[in-house]
Amino acid sequence: MRLPKCFPVSVFIVFALFSSSLALPGQEPKDALEIHRTGASYYNRGEYEKAIVAYKRAIELNPDSTEAYYHLGMSYSSLGKYKEAVEAYTRAIRIKSDYAAAYYNLGHAYSNLNRHDKAIKAFRQSIQHEPENVEAYLALANAYFDSGNEEKAVKTFEAAISLKPDDPYTYYRLGLVYFPTGLHARAAEAFTQVIIRDARYSEAYFHRAYSYLFLGRGESAARDAATYLSLKGWRAEHSLEMAIVSHFGNLQARREAAARSVLEEAVRQGDQKAWPYPAIEYLLGQISARLLHKLASDDSKKVEARAYVGVSLSLQGEHKAALEHLDWVKSHSDSQPIPFYLVISEKERIKAMSAVSFKK
Hints:
Blueprint: H1 32-44, H2 48-61, H3 66-78, H4 82-95, H5 100-112, H6 116-129, H7 134-146, H8 150-163, H9 168-178, H10 184-197, H11 202-214, H12 218-232, H13 239-252, H14 256-269, H15 277-283, H16 289-295, H17 299-315, H18 319-332, H19 337-359
Helix pairs in contact: 1-2, 2-3, 3-4, 3-5, 4-5, 5-6, 5-7, 6-7, 7-8, 8-9, 9-10, 10-11, 11-12, 11-13, 12-13, 13-14, 13-17, 16-17, 17-18, 17-19, 18-19
Protein backbone atom coordinates (compact mmCIF):
# COMPACT_ATOMS: atom_id res chain seq x y z
CA MET A 1 0.00 0.00 0.00
CA ARG A 2 2.93 2.36 -0.36
CA LEU A 3 2.41 5.36 -2.60
CA PRO A 4 3.99 5.13 -6.03
CA LYS A 5 7.40 6.63 -6.29
CA CYS A 6 6.15 8.84 -8.91
CA PHE A 7 4.98 11.51 -6.15
CA PRO A 8 8.68 12.73 -4.90
CA VAL A 9 8.08 15.90 -2.84
CA SER A 10 11.82 17.08 -2.55
CA VAL A 11 13.38 16.04 -5.82
CA PHE A 12 16.27 17.79 -7.63
CA ILE A 13 15.29 19.12 -11.04
CA VAL A 14 17.93 20.59 -13.31
CA PHE A 15 17.75 22.95 -16.25
CA ALA A 16 19.17 21.71 -19.53
CA LEU A 17 22.86 22.28 -20.13
CA PHE A 18 24.08 23.82 -23.35
CA SER A 19 25.84 21.52 -25.79
CA SER A 20 29.59 21.41 -25.50
CA SER A 21 32.69 19.47 -26.47
CA LEU A 22 35.75 18.27 -24.65
CA ALA A 23 39.17 19.66 -25.37
CA LEU A 24 41.26 17.49 -27.68
CA PRO A 25 43.46 14.86 -25.97
CA GLY A 26 46.74 16.33 -24.75
CA GLN A 27 45.50 19.93 -25.02
CA GLU A 28 44.88 22.21 -22.06
CA PRO A 29 41.83 24.47 -22.43
CA LYS A 30 43.00 28.00 -23.16
CA ASP A 31 40.45 30.09 -21.31
CA ALA A 32 37.60 30.04 -18.78
CA LEU A 33 34.95 29.44 -21.44
CA GLU A 34 36.70 26.36 -22.79
CA ILE A 35 37.21 25.00 -19.28
CA HIS A 36 33.54 25.65 -18.56
CA ARG A 37 32.57 23.70 -21.67
CA THR A 38 34.82 20.85 -20.57
CA GLY A 39 33.02 20.85 -17.20
CA ALA A 40 29.67 20.71 -18.97
CA SER A 41 30.82 17.69 -20.95
CA TYR A 42 31.93 15.95 -17.78
CA TYR A 43 28.57 16.79 -16.21
CA ASN A 44 26.61 15.40 -19.15
CA ARG A 45 28.60 12.16 -18.85
CA GLY A 46 27.83 11.87 -15.13
CA GLU A 47 31.42 12.58 -14.08
CA TYR A 48 30.43 15.15 -11.48
CA GLU A 49 33.68 15.24 -9.51
CA LYS A 50 35.61 16.09 -12.68
CA ALA A 51 32.99 18.68 -13.57
CA ILE A 52 33.46 20.33 -10.18
CA VAL A 53 37.22 20.58 -10.73
CA ALA A 54 36.65 22.15 -14.14
CA TYR A 55 34.08 24.66 -12.92
CA LYS A 56 36.29 25.70 -10.01
CA ARG A 57 39.17 26.28 -12.42
CA ALA A 58 36.87 28.33 -14.68
CA ILE A 59 35.89 30.44 -11.67
CA GLU A 60 39.57 31.04 -10.82
CA LEU A 61 40.03 32.48 -14.29
CA ASN A 62 36.72 34.36 -14.31
CA PRO A 63 35.42 35.01 -10.77
CA ASP A 64 32.34 36.82 -12.10
CA SER A 65 31.02 33.86 -14.11
CA THR A 66 27.46 33.29 -12.92
CA GLU A 67 27.14 30.26 -15.22
CA ALA A 68 30.22 28.59 -13.71
CA TYR A 69 28.84 28.99 -10.18
CA TYR A 70 25.40 27.82 -11.31
CA HIS A 71 26.70 24.66 -12.98
CA LEU A 72 29.05 24.06 -10.04
CA GLY A 73 25.94 24.03 -7.86
CA MET A 74 24.27 21.54 -10.20
CA SER A 75 27.30 19.25 -9.98
CA TYR A 76 27.30 19.38 -6.18
CA SER A 77 23.56 18.69 -6.07
CA SER A 78 24.00 15.70 -8.37
CA LEU A 79 26.39 14.25 -5.77
CA GLY A 80 24.01 15.00 -2.90
CA LYS A 81 26.33 17.72 -1.56
CA TYR A 82 23.55 20.21 -0.97
CA LYS A 83 25.38 22.52 1.44
CA GLU A 84 28.08 23.08 -1.15
CA ALA A 85 25.38 23.52 -3.81
CA VAL A 86 23.69 26.22 -1.70
CA GLU A 87 26.96 28.14 -1.51
CA ALA A 88 27.53 27.88 -5.29
CA TYR A 89 24.00 29.01 -6.20
CA THR A 90 24.22 31.83 -3.67
CA ARG A 91 27.47 33.06 -5.23
CA ALA A 92 25.80 33.04 -8.65
CA ILE A 93 22.90 35.10 -7.28
CA ARG A 94 25.24 37.62 -5.66
CA ILE A 95 26.64 38.33 -9.11
CA LYS A 96 23.28 38.23 -10.90
CA SER A 97 20.44 39.10 -8.53
CA ASP A 98 17.66 38.22 -11.00
CA TYR A 99 18.99 34.73 -11.83
CA ALA A 100 15.68 32.82 -11.73
CA ALA A 101 17.19 29.41 -12.51
CA ALA A 102 19.72 29.75 -9.68
CA TYR A 103 16.96 30.64 -7.21
CA TYR A 104 14.98 27.63 -8.45
CA ASN A 105 17.78 25.12 -7.94
CA LEU A 106 18.76 26.83 -4.68
CA GLY A 107 15.22 26.08 -3.49
CA HIS A 108 15.63 22.40 -4.32
CA ALA A 109 18.97 22.27 -2.51
CA TYR A 110 17.35 23.77 0.59
CA SER A 111 14.43 21.32 0.29
CA ASN A 112 16.85 18.41 0.29
CA LEU A 113 18.39 19.86 3.46
CA ASN A 114 14.88 20.10 4.99
CA ARG A 115 15.29 23.88 5.20
CA HIS A 116 11.75 24.45 4.02
CA ASP A 117 11.58 28.11 5.03
CA LYS A 118 14.68 28.86 2.95
CA ALA A 119 13.34 26.76 0.07
CA ILE A 120 10.06 28.68 0.06
CA LYS A 121 11.92 32.01 -0.06
CA ALA A 122 14.11 30.82 -2.94
CA PHE A 123 11.20 29.49 -5.01
CA ARG A 124 9.25 32.71 -4.44
CA GLN A 125 12.23 34.70 -5.69
CA SER A 126 12.49 32.45 -8.74
CA ILE A 127 8.84 33.15 -9.53
CA GLN A 128 9.37 36.87 -8.99
CA HIS A 129 11.99 36.90 -11.72
CA GLU A 130 10.28 34.34 -13.98
CA PRO A 131 6.53 34.53 -13.24
CA GLU A 132 5.48 32.13 -16.01
CA ASN A 133 7.60 29.20 -14.80
CA VAL A 134 5.04 26.56 -13.82
CA GLU A 135 7.73 24.25 -12.43
CA ALA A 136 8.71 26.92 -9.90
CA TYR A 137 5.10 27.11 -8.71
CA LEU A 138 4.95 23.33 -8.34
CA ALA A 139 8.21 23.34 -6.39
CA LEU A 140 6.95 26.13 -4.15
CA ALA A 141 3.72 24.24 -3.53
CA ASN A 142 5.69 21.15 -2.52
CA ALA A 143 7.84 23.24 -0.18
CA TYR A 144 4.72 24.67 1.47
CA PHE A 145 3.36 21.14 1.85
CA ASP A 146 6.63 19.89 3.35
CA SER A 147 6.55 22.76 5.84
CA GLY A 148 3.05 21.76 6.95
CA ASN A 149 1.25 24.67 5.29
CA GLU A 150 -1.30 22.72 3.27
CA GLU A 151 -3.51 25.73 2.61
CA LYS A 152 -0.75 27.68 0.87
CA ALA A 153 0.32 24.51 -0.96
CA VAL A 154 -3.15 24.14 -2.46
CA LYS A 155 -3.35 27.81 -3.43
CA THR A 156 0.04 27.60 -5.13
CA PHE A 157 -0.97 24.49 -7.07
CA GLU A 158 -4.10 26.32 -8.17
CA ALA A 159 -1.92 29.21 -9.36
CA ALA A 160 0.13 26.71 -11.40
CA ILE A 161 -3.04 25.28 -12.88
CA SER A 162 -4.20 28.75 -13.92
CA LEU A 163 -0.93 29.17 -15.84
CA LYS A 164 -1.12 25.76 -17.50
CA PRO A 165 -4.71 24.48 -17.29
CA ASP A 166 -4.26 21.66 -19.80
CA ASP A 167 -1.36 19.97 -17.99
CA PRO A 168 -2.56 16.73 -16.32
CA TYR A 169 0.58 16.49 -14.18
CA THR A 170 -0.25 19.72 -12.33
CA TYR A 171 -3.65 18.35 -11.33
CA TYR A 172 -1.99 15.08 -10.35
CA ARG A 173 0.36 16.90 -7.98
CA LEU A 174 -2.62 18.76 -6.51
CA GLY A 175 -4.37 15.43 -5.95
CA LEU A 176 -1.30 14.11 -4.16
CA VAL A 177 -1.51 17.07 -1.77
CA TYR A 178 -5.12 16.28 -0.94
CA PHE A 179 -4.62 12.50 -0.85
CA PRO A 180 -2.83 12.10 2.51
CA THR A 181 -4.89 14.79 4.27
CA GLY A 182 -8.25 13.03 4.34
CA LEU A 183 -9.86 15.35 1.77
CA HIS A 184 -10.92 12.41 -0.34
CA ALA A 185 -13.60 14.13 -2.43
CA ARG A 186 -11.18 16.90 -3.42
CA ALA A 187 -8.49 14.35 -4.19
CA ALA A 188 -10.89 12.36 -6.38
CA GLU A 189 -11.87 15.52 -8.27
CA ALA A 190 -8.22 16.47 -8.88
CA PHE A 191 -7.47 12.98 -10.22
CA THR A 192 -10.60 13.20 -12.37
CA GLN A 193 -9.20 16.36 -13.94
CA VAL A 194 -6.01 14.43 -14.70
CA ILE A 195 -7.96 11.67 -16.43
CA ILE A 196 -10.04 14.17 -18.44
CA ARG A 197 -6.77 15.47 -19.89
CA ASP A 198 -5.01 12.11 -20.18
CA ALA A 199 -7.23 9.03 -20.11
CA ARG A 200 -4.19 6.73 -19.88
CA TYR A 201 -2.62 8.33 -16.78
CA SER A 202 -2.46 5.09 -14.76
CA GLU A 203 -1.33 6.59 -11.45
CA ALA A 204 -4.36 8.90 -11.43
CA TYR A 205 -6.60 5.81 -11.61
CA PHE A 206 -4.56 4.24 -8.79
CA HIS A 207 -5.13 7.16 -6.44
CA ARG A 208 -8.70 7.84 -7.49
CA ALA A 209 -9.57 4.17 -6.88
CA TYR A 210 -8.42 4.56 -3.28
CA SER A 211 -10.16 7.92 -2.91
CA TYR A 212 -13.44 6.36 -4.07
CA LEU A 213 -12.93 3.40 -1.74
CA PHE A 214 -12.40 5.77 1.21
CA LEU A 215 -15.59 7.60 0.21
CA GLY A 216 -17.59 4.37 0.13
CA ARG A 217 -18.07 4.56 -3.64
CA GLY A 218 -17.17 0.92 -4.13
CA GLU A 219 -18.37 0.46 -7.69
CA SER A 220 -16.32 3.47 -8.86
CA ALA A 221 -13.29 2.23 -6.93
CA ALA A 222 -13.54 -1.20 -8.56
CA ARG A 223 -13.89 0.36 -12.00
CA ASP A 224 -10.78 2.53 -11.57
CA ALA A 225 -8.80 -0.41 -10.22
CA ALA A 226 -9.82 -2.44 -13.27
CA THR A 227 -8.74 0.41 -15.56
CA TYR A 228 -5.35 0.56 -13.83
CA LEU A 229 -4.91 -3.18 -14.41
CA SER A 230 -5.88 -2.87 -18.06
CA LEU A 231 -3.30 -0.09 -18.52
CA LYS A 232 -0.44 -1.58 -16.51
CA GLY A 233 -1.08 -5.32 -16.65
CA TRP A 234 -0.86 -7.81 -13.81
CA ARG A 235 2.89 -7.58 -13.17
CA ALA A 236 3.24 -3.88 -12.34
CA GLU A 237 4.31 -2.75 -8.87
CA HIS A 238 0.79 -1.97 -7.65
CA SER A 239 -1.24 -4.51 -9.63
CA LEU A 240 -1.96 -6.91 -6.76
CA GLU A 241 -2.86 -3.93 -4.60
CA MET A 242 -5.37 -2.77 -7.20
CA ALA A 243 -6.85 -6.27 -7.31
CA ILE A 244 -7.50 -5.97 -3.57
CA VAL A 245 -9.02 -2.50 -4.00
CA SER A 246 -11.27 -3.89 -6.74
CA HIS A 247 -12.24 -6.76 -4.43
CA PHE A 248 -13.16 -4.42 -1.57
CA GLY A 249 -14.93 -2.00 -3.90
CA ASN A 250 -17.07 -4.76 -5.34
CA LEU A 251 -17.92 -5.96 -1.83
CA GLN A 252 -18.95 -2.41 -0.88
CA ALA A 253 -21.23 -2.48 -3.92
CA ARG A 254 -22.57 -5.92 -2.92
CA ARG A 255 -21.13 -7.57 -6.03
CA GLU A 256 -19.77 -10.70 -4.36
CA ALA A 257 -19.20 -12.68 -7.55
CA ALA A 258 -17.17 -9.86 -9.12
CA ALA A 259 -15.22 -9.44 -5.86
CA ARG A 260 -14.12 -13.06 -5.92
CA SER A 261 -13.52 -13.10 -9.66
CA VAL A 262 -10.86 -10.38 -9.51
CA LEU A 263 -8.95 -12.33 -6.84
CA GLU A 264 -9.07 -15.48 -8.94
CA GLU A 265 -7.71 -13.48 -11.88
CA ALA A 266 -4.90 -12.25 -9.64
CA VAL A 267 -4.01 -15.87 -8.88
CA ARG A 268 -3.86 -16.69 -12.58
CA GLN A 269 -1.94 -13.64 -13.75
CA GLY A 270 -0.31 -11.97 -10.76
CA ASP A 271 3.19 -12.43 -9.36
CA GLN A 272 2.75 -15.03 -6.64
CA LYS A 273 6.16 -14.19 -5.16
CA ALA A 274 5.35 -10.51 -4.68
CA TRP A 275 3.69 -8.72 -1.79
CA PRO A 276 0.75 -8.50 -1.18
CA TYR A 277 0.02 -11.85 -2.87
CA PRO A 278 -0.44 -13.59 0.53
CA ALA A 279 -3.31 -11.17 1.16
CA ILE A 280 -4.95 -12.46 -2.04
CA GLU A 281 -4.69 -15.97 -0.63
CA TYR A 282 -6.17 -14.82 2.68
CA LEU A 283 -9.10 -13.07 1.01
CA LEU A 284 -9.80 -16.25 -0.98
CA GLY A 285 -9.82 -18.25 2.25
CA GLN A 286 -6.69 -20.22 1.31
CA ILE A 287 -4.58 -19.14 4.33
CA SER A 288 -5.40 -17.91 7.82
CA ALA A 289 -5.02 -14.39 9.18
CA ARG A 290 -2.30 -15.73 11.49
CA LEU A 291 -0.27 -17.02 8.54
CA LEU A 292 -0.81 -13.77 6.62
CA HIS A 293 0.64 -11.83 9.55
CA LYS A 294 3.58 -14.22 9.69
CA LEU A 295 4.28 -13.74 5.97
CA ALA A 296 4.36 -9.95 6.38
CA SER A 297 8.13 -9.52 6.51
CA ASP A 298 8.41 -5.96 7.88
CA ASP A 299 6.44 -3.43 9.93
CA SER A 300 4.96 -1.75 6.86
CA LYS A 301 3.62 -5.04 5.52
CA LYS A 302 2.29 -6.02 8.95
CA VAL A 303 0.24 -2.81 8.98
CA GLU A 304 -1.09 -3.58 5.50
CA ALA A 305 -1.91 -7.17 6.44
CA ARG A 306 -3.90 -6.07 9.48
CA ALA A 307 -5.74 -3.49 7.39
CA TYR A 308 -6.74 -6.13 4.84
CA VAL A 309 -7.95 -8.48 7.56
CA GLY A 310 -9.89 -5.75 9.36
CA VAL A 311 -11.64 -4.45 6.25
CA SER A 312 -12.41 -7.96 5.05
CA LEU A 313 -13.99 -8.92 8.37
CA SER A 314 -15.98 -5.69 8.43
CA LEU A 315 -17.35 -6.22 4.92
CA GLN A 316 -18.42 -9.71 6.00
CA GLY A 317 -20.38 -8.16 8.87
CA GLU A 318 -17.99 -9.32 11.63
CA HIS A 319 -17.62 -5.83 13.07
CA LYS A 320 -16.41 -6.69 16.56
CA ALA A 321 -13.56 -8.83 15.25
CA ALA A 322 -12.83 -6.25 12.56
CA LEU A 323 -12.46 -3.39 15.03
CA GLU A 324 -9.66 -5.18 16.87
CA HIS A 325 -7.57 -5.13 13.68
CA LEU A 326 -8.74 -1.68 12.51
CA ASP A 327 -7.86 -0.07 15.84
CA TRP A 328 -4.42 -1.68 15.78
CA VAL A 329 -3.75 -0.34 12.30
CA LYS A 330 -4.93 3.14 13.29
CA SER A 331 -2.33 3.27 16.05
CA HIS A 332 0.51 1.87 13.92
CA SER A 333 0.10 3.59 10.53
CA ASP A 334 1.20 7.18 11.18
CA SER A 335 3.51 7.26 8.16
CA GLN A 336 1.25 5.19 5.89
CA PRO A 337 -1.71 7.23 4.69
CA ILE A 338 -3.34 4.48 2.64
CA PRO A 339 -3.79 1.92 5.46
CA PHE A 340 -4.71 4.74 7.86
CA TYR A 341 -7.52 6.13 5.75
CA LEU A 342 -8.63 2.68 4.69
CA VAL A 343 -9.29 1.73 8.32
CA ILE A 344 -10.67 5.19 9.23
CA SER A 345 -13.21 5.00 6.41
CA GLU A 346 -14.16 1.45 7.38
CA LYS A 347 -14.57 2.40 11.05
CA GLU A 348 -16.85 5.26 9.98
CA ARG A 349 -18.89 2.84 7.88
CA ILE A 350 -19.26 0.49 10.87
CA LYS A 351 -20.32 3.42 13.04
CA ALA A 352 -22.91 4.53 10.49
CA MET A 353 -24.32 1.01 10.19
CA SER A 354 -24.50 0.67 13.97
CA ALA A 355 -26.40 3.96 14.21
CA VAL A 356 -28.93 2.73 11.65
CA SER A 357 -29.35 -0.58 13.50
CA PHE A 358 -29.85 1.28 16.80
CA LYS A 359 -32.57 3.48 15.32
CA LYS A 360 -34.40 0.41 14.05
